[in-house]
Design brief:
Bound molecules: zinc ion
Shape: globular
Number of helices: 12
Strand order of the largest sheet: 5-4-8-2-1-14-17-16
CATH topology of one domain: Immunoglobulin-like
Largest sheet: 8 strands, mixed
């Protein structure tokens, strides 16, 4: 199905960094003395409309040292880390030239986000003369990265090295000449140009090495091996080396999806879980290729992290994801499936449609959580232990109810009120999209998202690109998304009260204007179905009201308390109390879930 493969091609946008060519070596001098040393040649083009005088670089392994903004955001360098300086990470540019001119002397650390002068996660060079629009530069960088003990996302475990955010990487230059080059934060992820990567890695030959590129060459000689990886149309490069990895290969193809090779690098003691990983990936590939569009790469790699490095699990990189499993994970808890499906989803929302993950994280995490929940709900249950069952969509609501009071969804990731980032960016977003889907109908909603995917593949859309594109398909839904995305808080629809023939309905919290279906039953057996829009409603039904139901088809997933949507003259006070008790038990249970 060539047509399918190439339908994205005309939209390819190459700009900023055109290509990276790297030669690096992994040097292991001790348990925590693990270095990646080498050089990179970057072809960079000024794609902005204005001249550029400076180029900032991410030096993200400097997050794992004293004084960094990351360490401040997690509450300071942990006590153990103060004692063990050898655990710290470090990333240093030894030499940098631009078109042959040595600019090492112009390098300086900058802190564009928070002014924390101890943070070294961004450094910039000043060009001897401005680069005009369209100018191409050859940037050569010699660098050394010391991997930290695994703390978050990258680093060394026991015989396991997860090498991500490891090379000096330029920021993203916007049209108006503004750079996006954020410091490394606790919350908020990454943003970079689509480029071609060619990376040659030298490593000890007893390690199994893989990367998010196609392995084009591998040579072993004695204790060393060298591997060459190549990949185009990706915006990050990551590699992994492990002494125990077992490689499992599989494939997926369908009328809607050209063949994809599935590579699973799994720990030997997790081998019995391999079927769970592979089935989850295939389920996700099937769902996405049918609803949104084909996965545009030939390969997807899943890394099953070593137990010493579980903090590298559950992460996404272009064409490579990290899962997570445990030796004895009961089949009733679909954690491995959930994390695999979630991280695979990022291939679409982050990998191909590459929004700025730090400033508008909902576009990747929230859209992706919405899909995760839809795919997970194709399993009968997310959680099924001793007869207690819950679906993924049900477990999402709790964070939304508890933790969305301080900031709107559209807030830069590191600026959220403590502890409320994921409830907004993941949960509130996913529930809003799920509500939107149920209100317009599944097929229509997925078609709109498919159009968004097609239009913004291999580029960097923003929130307004998203809303404009889907509204072209769905009409004006600003009554839903404006309050839900741009205001803090939640919404609740309720039966305020019933007095004989009269019913009062009330909307509390956010002013969400959507059609709300209501059913009222009167004593003569008549059913009155109508649509209510607005803040409140007082209505007389002519006969004694016996039953009221707001949103009987359960479309409003953003309704903070769906239990006050029903009223019945028959239900006695004890049975209402028993109902509330059950609801509370469920809430406690859901709270315990990851
Ligand atoms: Zn995610």
């Amino acid at each position: 199905m060539r047509k399918l493969i190439f339908f994205l091609a005309p939209l390819l946008l190459f700009s900023g960094v055109i290509s990276y060519k790297m030669e690096v070596a992994l040097e292991i001098k001790g348990r925590y003395k693990v270095f990646v040393k080498g050089r990179e040649i970057i072809q960079w083009e000024n794609n902005a409309q204005v001249p550029v005088e400076r180029i900032p670089f991410h030096l993200y392994q400097n997050a794992f040292r004293k004084g960094s903004s990351f360490m401040k955001e997690i509450g300071g360098l942990p006590r153990k880390w103060k004692k063990h300086k050898e655990w710290w990470g470090k990333e240093e540019i030894k030499r940098i030239t631009v078109n042959g001119n040595d600019l090492t002397g112009t390098l300086k650390f900058t802190q564009p986000d928070d002014g924390n002068s101890e943070d070294r996660t961004v450094a910039e060079i000043t060009l001897p003369e401005p680069a005009e629009p369209g100018d191409q530069l050859t940037i050569e960088v010699e660098f050394t990265t010391k991997l930290p003990k695994v703390f978050a996302r990258s680093g060394s475990g026991v015989g396991y090295y997860f090498v991500s955010q490891w090379f000096p990487k330029p920021g993203v230059l916007l049209d108006d000449g503004k750079w996006v080059c954020h410091q490394y934060h606790r919350n908020g992820e990454f943003f970079a140009d689509f480029s071609t990567y060619e990376v040659k890695i030298k490593a000890p030959s007893d390690l199994v090495v893989t990367a998010n590129g196609e392995l084009v060459k591998q040579e072993k000689s004695g204790k060393n091996q060298s591997l060459l990886f190549r990949q185009d149309r990706i915006h990050d490069f990551v590699w992994v080396a492990d002494k125990d990895f077992i490689k499992v290969e599989d494939r997926f193809s369908s009328p809607k999806q050209p063949e994809v090779k599935i590579l699973l690098f799994i720990q030997p003691d997790h081998l019995r879980q391999k079927g769970r990983y592979l089935e989850a990936i295939k389920r996700a590939l099937k769902f996405y290729s049918e609803k949104i569009g084909p996965y545009p790469y030939k390969r997807i790699t899943i890394i099953d992290p070593d137990i010493s490095a579980m903090r590298t699990s559950g992460m996404e990189y272009p064409t490579l994801i990290t899962g997570g499993s445990l030796y004895l994970l009961p089949k009733g808890i679909k954690f491995t499936e959930d994390v695999t499906i979630h991280e695979f989803g990022h291939q679409y929302w982050y990998g191909v449609v590459a929004n700025n993950e730090t400033d508008e994280a909902w576009l990747d995490e929230g859209v992706n959580t919405f899909f995760e929940e839809n795919i997970m709900d194709t399993y009968p249950w997310f959680f099924d232990i001793l007869g207690y069952r819950a679906r993924d969509s049900e477990r999402l609501r709790l964070g939304y109810i508890k933790s969305t009071y301080a900031d709107p969804i559209i807030t830069p990731s590191w600026k959220f009120f403590p502890g409320t980032y994921s409830a907004n960016v993941y949960t509130k977003t996913a529930l809003t999209l799920e509500t939107w889907k149920r209100l317009v109908g599944e097929d229509k909603f997925f078609s709109a998202l498919s159009e968004y995917y097609r239009k913004y593949a291999f580029s960097h859309p923003t929130s307004s690109d998203f809303f404009n594109t889907v509204q072209q398909y769905l009409g004006d839904w600003s009554g839903l998304w404006k309050p839900m995305f741009y205001r803090a808080g939640k919404v609740n629809w309720k039966v305020y009260g019933v007095w004989g023939r009269e019913v009062i309905l009330l909307r509390q919290g956010l002013d969400v204007e959507v059609p709300v279906e209501v059913e009222v039953e009167t004593q003569d057996g008549k059913k009155h179905s109508f649509v209510w829009e607005g803040k409140w409603l007082k209505k007389n039904f002519g006969k004694k009201v016996v039953k009221v139901s707001i949103d009987p088809k359960e479309k409003l997933m953003i309704d903070a308390n769906p239990f006050d949507n029903r009223w019945s003259r028959k239900s006695s006070i004890p049975s209402r109390l028993a109902w509330r008790f059950l609801v509370n038990i469920q809430a406690i249970f859901l709270n315990l879930l990851p």
